[in-house]
Amino acid sequence: MACSIVQFCHFQDLQAARDFLFPQLREDKRLIPALLPLPRSSRRRAHLAGWRERAWVVSTLLPRRENDLLRRVLEKKLGGGNAPGAEEDSIDAGKSSNWEDDGWGAWEDAELPEPEEEGSTCKTRKTSWLQDCVLSLSPTSDLMVIAREQKAVFLVPKWKHSDKGKEEMQFAVAWSGSLSVEEGEYVTSALCIPLASQKRSSTGRPDWTCIVVGFTSGYVRFYTETGVLLLAQLLNEDMVLQLKCRTYEIPRHPGVTEQSEELSILYPAAIVTIDGFSLFQSLRACRNQVAKAAASGSDNIEPPPLAYKKWGLQDIDTIVDHASIGIMTLSPFDQMKTASNIGGFNAAIKNSPPAMSQYLTVGANPFTGFFYALEGSTQPLLSHVALAVASKLTSALFNAASGWLGWKSKHEEEAVQRQKPKVEPATPLAVRFGLPDSRRHGESICLSPCNTLAAVTDDFGRVILLDVARGIAVRMWKGYRDAQAGWVQVVEDLQERAPGREDSSPFRSSQGPSRVAQFLVIYAPRRGILEVWAMRQGPRVGAFNVGKHCRLLYPGYKIMGLNSVTSQSWQPQTYQICLVDPMSGSVKTVNVPFHLALSDKKSERAKDMHLMMKLAALLRARPGPDSIETEIKEIILDIKYPATKTQALESILASERLPFSCLRNVTQTVMDALRSQERASVDEGLLHFCAGRLKLLRLYESVGQLNSLGLRSAEPFSDEALAVLLRLDEKELRKLQALLEKYKRENSRPAVRFSEDSEGALPVKTFLEYLECEKDTLSIKRISEEEYVALGSFFFWKCLLGESSTEDVCHTLEAAGLSPQLLLSLLLGVWLSKEKEILEKPRSVCGLHTMLSLLSRMKVAIDEAWDSQSVSPWWQQMRLACVQSENNGAALLSAHVGHSVAVQMSNHMTERKVSGRGARGPCTRGSPGRTVPSDPSRPIAPNTFTPSRSEPRESPPGRSEVTAAGPGHRCRSPGLSRLLRPELERGTAVRGERARPPPPPVPNAACLVSAAGGIADSVAKWVFKQDLSPGLLNLAHQDGGGENAGEPKEGADRAFPREAEAEADTGGIPDALRLACEQFPCSLEPDVLHAHCCWEYVVQWNRDPEEARFLARSLEHLRHIISAHVQHGVALMMWTTFLVKRFSAAAYLMDKVGKSPKDRLCRRDVGMSDAALTSFLGCCVDLLQTLMEADVGRDEMPPPVLDTEDAWLPAEGPASIAELALEQKPVHYLLVQHHSVLGAVLYAVAHFALKAVKPLSLFDSKGKNAFFKDLTSIQLLPSGEMDPNFISVRQQFLLKVVSAAVQAQHSAPKDRKPSAEAASGKDRDWPALAVDLAQHLQVSEDVVRRHYVGELYSHGADHLGEEAILQVHDKEVLASQLLVLTGQRLAHALLHTQSREGMELLARLPPTLCTWLKAMSPQDLQDTGVPIAVTARLVHKVVELLPEQHGQYGLALHLLEAMEALALPPS
Q1: Which end of the chain is more exposed for a tag (fewer CB within 10 A), N or C?
Q2: pLDDT tens-digit map of 474-492
Q3: What is d(CA 208, CA 231) in angstroms, rounded to the nearest whole number?
Q4: How many separate helices (H) and strands (E) can be counted in the chain?
């Protein structure tokens, strides 16, 4: 295992961040020299736009007391170093720099050279832009900050799909904007500090991340992840050079001092440390106050106190970077040495060494400085915040870059900003000692995680390793100009030898303190290489080519807010170091294994890893002569670690290129070597592993040799031998063979086989993966079904074909430690999965019989003490395997074989018991043909065996075990299998639909668990897929052939016109149905089958309500149910389960809109279209009518008795639909009738699109309250006389229905397409329905009939009107109405046609008749083209109906005379 670099995150759109920070690159303008690549020393600073502006900022920020060298160093930090076109490296290892001689003014006034090539400069800028930014990444990888000048971009990780379709974590922009507050300030440094959660459920885990930003103005500001300003503090008037953080770490040893958390801020001449606990509490309080202010709009915010210390660093010229080591305590020797160096010979020392805070700085003169601040000195602990800071807390309501809490005027805000807060003076702190090197200028310092070492980079291209405690340089690397350094700390995993033990501490375990290794990571951008070095004097352990424009990020801290208690509960998942590659847009981390830190003398692990790599290369090579085996043995014997040796042996055994002999010899060699060692020094795990693998290899070799014998039987396998073997007579055998032949023909599918696929072959690698050895027994791992069959084929397939010795194989497997139950499972798995091969080779039945007999005789297979009248677990296992199989043919044969073997063993046990009692006489129970049922296709009870009628009633012991495995194949009979086979689906798919894919095979267990109801349910699903008419199902239950099938078919054709066509297309479906009904006469009884079909159709309709024909076909099946009890129950369940909810929604919707609703409203409230709603309401009316008829019929017939086949008696499963229907309570007839009236009203409104009709307004409060209640409950219904207003509204509605019905019948064009109802033969008689509704709504039926007659005559249908007159009771009132209609017709003929004859006739008419005719309005007539002769007949009819004493009788006579005159031909 070697060092590796791993990508753990990606950038979603890094170019967007670059374009925001560098708009010049986005606009693709001519770049100015200020945008040229800058050297390494400026990568942590903000880069000012313009050379003169940068020089001005530097000159104004630096105090006058600093020397020119400090100005030049900061000029290099801010100015970008050398101008383009000059040499990149002005200082190297062998020459001194001559830029010290240049004056400040000369640098300012010098003319800047123009870039050599604009294209190459732009290209370089676009690739190296990240070097010019301030970059920080949270240790928990939950936030990244990229800042430049005044702008910043916050990125957060999100799980998204990559281009390859895989989910990966990608950094996406969460916030971008400007962070500067004061004019002319820029970002110089940034930190992302995760803060620990204080909740009980997530103690120690990161809660949120705070962004700390330092500016050139000296301000340090704290932000949230969304850019909201929390706190701003001016701690020094100089610019912020660097921000660093230290968090809590668990001490490695008990004597190590716990380090407190702190945030350190470096200024050019001072360093400020903020106490971590105070900062943690302040940030949490500020975040809570900002959230409350954003919610309430209040600006009353008081920031909590902030504790910090400020030290003024003296005796050093320039400071560029720093490191806070923490609190340290000197040893007594170091204490005395320090005291004598400072105070001389007579210096006094304290009894206990004082605690000091140690700081390291890098810069110039000295190159490295060591500062020590005594704890408890006069340095004050500042615990307050300037008052001006309170006004600079940013509310979440405003932008983080410009808005402050409070609603002050613009002038007041400017005044507050101009007034800077008071800055506390720094306490002087002199440098204790340093590394003086006047020519060397430090650039950065990176402290190791253990605070013992530090890596310093300088401008000579060196990386220097410092011993922090001793203050000396211990190592130096050359040739790393502009290098970036970081650390990786790795803890030795002591849990490898004790995997069951765990410890919460990362440094301590039950075996003592864990060893810790530190590695220095150096990134050289000039060479584009990342190196990993072992400390202190270790070699380079890793090197990677990563590109020349990356950034190495080493935070050096983890989560702030932890302590010794919270850090024990949960170890934070933080990274130590990462590499940001802008070219590929990825973020990578470095993984270093611990063993790379060990030296060659002590590293057995490193040597073992080297041997493992050598072994892996050897296994990848092509196997040659025996020398490769010798080399493998030498390598594996040289490995010392037991875990590594086990890993090596596993890789050898998993190799597919090594021959079996090599695997066996290598394993045997390792085993011999272990046995030759002392018992105490041998690893038990490795010993057991080698013994188990060796045992498996020997088993593989033995079985392989037996399978390679290639035995062939010379004797042909005859039908007589098969009958004797299965204990069947000749008739039963022929019936079984015919059934299997038919099954094989119907289930044959083309398959592809390759010549390379050899039956029963299994590679040794796969064999070892499937089995595992535990002590003396072998077990099978969790493998897939295909792998299980492959292992069983390796053991038994040759035996089943008679090509291997069955007895030898059984003895070998038993001796290896495989249990009989496991072998039985493998045997049945092979048999049931290879159905096609088995049905083609009858000899395999003999092999199965022999193998099953041998397995049954093994020890612990069948307990002799088991009760003979119950099913033993052995046969129960075989029965369960057959039940769960989807291959019915193989399950049928295995059931017969199991039956035969069970009878044989039962007879054997009986003979033993009889011989033990001294009894004599022949035992005829084992004779062939007398121990199995006479019909192998008939169902057998799943859990019990009943002797056939041909056998004596006495049953031998163990008789209940005989057919424990037999009924599996009968759970789905061959007849039902033929009925449901996919081949029948190709020609009988539902018309108008795409052909459905064939259904998956149904295992026998599904039918067995579902009991009797499962058979009818399966057939119902098949009927739905074939769309068979209900009448056709009755053909399957009729006795006889085609002669008797014609009669019911004709009746069915009259009821269902599509039935004859459907039957013509079904081919053999009635025969298949009849066969299934013969096998299951009770489960497929007509009422039961129709009930299940009815339920299946309504279920399918509920899934797709737009298919109204499904609901209509469901009602057809419901009407075909003969038993009123079953019909009543099914109808009630349909209404309660599927219809009442949509029915009520439709009623409320139509009552709300007052008309037939539009399609959009129907889909929203009812869940179907307006056209489907009309059909749905009609089906509801039919269902309620059927329910009422069934409720009446229940009183006239007894409830049916639903029989069940014997096979389902002990089975447990859901009841059939018919059984559930019989359990339903009786309905309240009047309540059903009440709903039927509402359904008819709704149906009429939807069918005729009536307007201004509110259906629920036709009922009073009692009627409304009774709607949509349980139909079996007793509700208070309307009774007695109804309010006349209700009766008037109802009458108007019924008259509208009659008018709409007559208009729809006579005014539609003749070529109109037939409606869905007319196509199904159910065109309703709406006038009759209106008369029936009038009876229930207490409206006069005669009024409806008279209106119907009037509408017929108005539409010119006089012949229908004459028939309807016969049903009217009050003919005198009808005659008066028809008289008016006659007058309208005559008025149209005389007054509106303006003919000469008409005018002459009008002149001869009596004045009274003329006045009456002129008052008539022919516009009320729907058909004005009725002939005069027809109208004359109507007048004769009116005269006949009117009595002579009626007031209009004379007027009728005048009309009769006028009609006769008008009908005469002109002379």
Answers
A1: C
A2: 999 999 999 999 999 998 7
A3: 16
A4: 51, 32
Helices 843-856, 785-800: axis angle to 10 degrees equals 100
Cis check: omega of the bond before 536, within 30 degrees of 0: yes
From residue 1192, how far is each of 225, 1196, 1268 by CA, in Å? 75, 7, 21
Q: Describe the strand order of the beta sheet including 427-435 as a list of residue ranges.
A: 242-246, 262-266, 270-275, 308-314, 427-435, 368-374, 355-364, 318-329
d(CA 966, CA 881): 11
Output the six-digit token pair for 199.
Answer: 């909740």
- Rounded alpha-carbon distances, angstroms, from residue 1205 to 1033, 1081, 1210: 20, 8, 10
Q: Residue range 226-244: average pLDDT?
A: 92
DSSP assigned state of 382: B
Residues 6+ apart with CB under 8 A from 892: 736, 739, 740, 936, 969, 974
What's the rounded mean pLDDT across residues 533-560?
A: 92
Amino acid at 466: L
Q: How far apart are alpha carbons 786 and 547 in whole angstroms? A: 48
Contacts of 416 (CB under 8 A, 6+ apart): 388, 391, 408
pLDDT exceeds cutoff 70 at 1309: no
Q: How confident is the model at residue 1397 (pLDDT cuts 50, 70, 90)?
A: low
pLDDT band at 641; cut points 50, 70, 90: confident
pLDDT more than 70, % of the chain: 73
Q: What are phi and psi of 431, to 5 degrees?
A: -75, 135
Look-up: residue for tokens 């990677």? Answer: 544
Tell me the C-alpha distance between 289 and 300, whole Å: 9
Given a contact cutoff of 8 angstroms between Cβ atoms, the answer to whether 696 and 668 are in contact is no
How high is the mean pLDDT of the chain?
Answer: 77
Cβ atoms of 17 and 603 closer than 8 Å: no
Alpha-carbon span 1060 to 1029, nearest angstrom: 9
User: Cβ distance 321 to 266 under 8 Å?
Assistant: yes
Give the long-range contacts of residues 855-862, CB within 8 A, separation 24 or more: 855/810, 855/820, 855/823, 855/824, 855/827, 856/820, 856/901, 856/905, 857/905, 858/810, 858/814, 858/820, 858/823, 859/820, 860/819, 860/820, 861/820, 861/821, 861/824, 862/905
State phi, psi for 290 to the nearest 5 degrees. -65, -40
Q: Tell whether the model's pLDDT for residue 929 goes beyond 50.
A: no
SS3 1117: helix
Q: Are 1035 and 1043 in contact (CB under 8 A)?
A: no
Q: Where are the beta strands (DSSP E) in 468-539?
A: 472-477, 484-491, 508-509, 512-513, 516-524, 529-534
* Report for 413-422, 476-485, 943-952, 1329-1338: range of highest mean pLDDT: 476-485
> How would you classify the pairing of strands 551-553 and 540-545?
unpaired
Mean pLDDT of 754-759: 49
Distance of alpha carbon 1252 from alpha carbon 1142, whole angstroms: 22
Cross-strand pairs, 446? 455
Pair 660, 764: CB distance under 8 Å: yes
What pLDDT digit, counting tens, does each position of 257-297 carry?
778 899 999 999 999 999 998 899 999 999 988 888 888 87
Give the pLDDT of residue 1136.
Answer: 95
Q: Measure the CA–CA gap between 805 and 862, rounded to whole angstroms.
A: 23
Phi-psi region of 872 (alpha: psi -120 to 50; beta: other; left: phi over 0): beta
Handedness of CA 1364, 1366, 1370, 1373 (dihedral sign): positive
> Using CA atoms, how far apart are residues 371 and 392, in angstroms rounded to an integer?
34
Q: What is the pLDDT of residue 624?
A: 61
Spatial CA neighbour of 897 closest among 947, 859, 861, 844: 844
State yes or no: pLDDT of 136 exceeds 80. yes
